[in-house]
Design goal:
By secondary structure, this protein is of the alpha+beta class. The chain folds into two domains: 124 residues; 216 residues, no CATH class. The protein contains seven helices and 21 strands. The strands form four sheets. Strands 1, 2, 7, 8, 9, 12, 13, 14 and 15 form a nine-stranded antiparallel β-sheet that branches. The termini are far apart.
Length: 423
């Protein structure tokens, strides 16, 4: 056991007998079952992803074809009931958000209190090696004190003595949300309000210490006798806001929004809501449907729901271009995840061949390389084939082309095998 400043560490070595052939074979059988499940799930992921991607693209094209600009955000026109419109304006809320524990208030859509506690944290670094016919595992445990937003359970530490953390925080984190958020005369739906999450840290430099046992340091309130040298169990509190809706001499002007509302008719089809994350900005752009003075989701004929919010004052074309880009990125990410799941599943199912020859080092290494190459080729072919089947009902020509590509890995692999000599 060694102590280096606030960081402590010790090493623990455990050993167990080397597993026999039947034991390794049993473990491999369990892995084969898990691999089969992963393999089957990859087909479902790849197939449904293609339908989702094409449905979303058609929904976005439908929305873009129906956009109309509004002349004013301060009056609600009955002619635009259920229609797709574009507007821009400042966010407004009915009343300030307030934290009574620290006497802090702000005119914004959201106010988040973030609480951290100074705690012990355990880190592990392990390595395995074989010695005298046994498998030994050397684990180095190190301990350091850090600010963490969640309570670290020290009972799970390898050594709790000297590294004990409190079981709970005296002050909890929370997020307050304004019950009424408007742009001019229009009220944003809960789904749109949920997308206003471009949080910025609130400066506390102009505030006084709220209590005798609380000390302000920078942009934090400290529950500590000495914030510069905190002890385990001390707390620090910071605040964040999103969607500034009023004038503030220290925070700036109200956030602006640009809205895209959709023409909507009663025979629309409901489906899942699309969401979008965005970076910090003083302006946002929203896509939704107008119903009276409410801005709510728009249900497309393709079966999707459009309820989009972006930072910045974007044009209609820019909004839908970003949505198409987001849809493309999500599609390729899920394709990669599906391929990886198929590769892992095939690798686990064929692991038994590696186990059968792992007594012979040279043969074992060659078999391992061959199994990885086999899994790569089969996963690539089956992934492309599954994607082509997913496209078959939407774009038959592309489906045929992708199906042809699916056999290329097998054709290339077969072409590398030399022909048998004539006897």
């Amino acid at each position: 056991f060694s102590d280096t400043g606030s960081r402590k560490e010790h090493v623990k070595i455990t050993s167990e007998s080397k597993p026999g052939f039947l034991e390794r074979l049993s473990e491999t059988s369990g892995g084969m079952l898990m691999g089969l499940v992963t393999f089957l799930l990859s087909f479902y992921l790849l197939f449904t992803n293609e339908g989702r991607a094409l449905r979303t693209a058609k929904s976005l094209d439908e929305g873009l074809s129906l956009v109309i600009p509004l002349d004013s955000i301060h009056s609600v026109s009955q002619q635009n009931e259920g229609r797709l419109v574009h507007l821009a304006g400042a966010l407004s809320t009915s009343k300030p958000l307030f934290d009574p524990s620290y006497g802090l208030s702000i005119q914004a859509v959201k106010l988040k209190r973030h609480v951290e506690m100074y705690q012990w944290v355990e880190y592990e670094d392990s390595r395995e090696y074989e010695e005298n016919g046994e498998i030994k595992k050397e684990t180095k445990y190190s301990y350091n004190t850090e600010w963490k937003s969640e309570v670290v359970n020290s009972k799970n530490f390898d050594r709790e003595i000297g590294h004990k953390n409190p079981s709970a925080m005296a002050v909890e984190s929370f997020t307050a949300v304004s019950p009424n958020v408007q742009v001019g005369s229009f009220v944003l739906s809960k789904g749109l309000v949920d997308k206003i999450d471009n949080f910025k840290q609130l400066s506390l430099s102009n505030l006084e210490d709220p209590h005798a046992d609380v000390t302000r340091g920078g942009d934090y309130f400290y529950h500590s006798e000495n914030p510069r040298r905190p002890e385990v169990g001390d707390l620090r509190v910071s605040f964040f806001y999103a969607g500034l809706s009023g004038e503030d001499p220290y925070l700036g002007s109200a956030d602006m929004v640009s809205l895209q509302l959709f023409l909507y008719f009663a025979n629309s089809v409901p489906s899942s809501v699309t969401s979008k994350y965005f970076s910090l900005s003083s302006k946002v752009t929203v896509v939704a449907r107008q119903r009276g003075d409410q801005l709510i989701p728009y249900h497309t004929k393709s079966g999707d729901v459009l309820q989009i919010l972006y930072p910045g004052d974007l044009t209609v074309e820019e909004v839908f271009q970003k949505e198409h880009e987001s849809n493309t990125m999500k599609t390729w990410a899920l394709r990669a995840a599906g391929w990886l799941a198929m590769f892992v599943g095939i690798s686990l199912m064929t692991r038994i061949f590696y186990t059968l020859v792992d007594w012979f080092p040279v043969v074992r290494d060659l078999v391992n390389v061959g199994l990885k190459a086999f899994a790569f080729c089969v996963a690539s072919s089956l992934s492309l084939l599954t994607i082509s089947i997913g496209w078959l009902f939407y774009r038959p020509l592309w489906a045929v082309l992708i199906a042809c590509l699916s056999v290329m890995p097998i054709v290339i692999a077969k072409s590398r095998v030399p022909p048998k000599k004539q006897q």
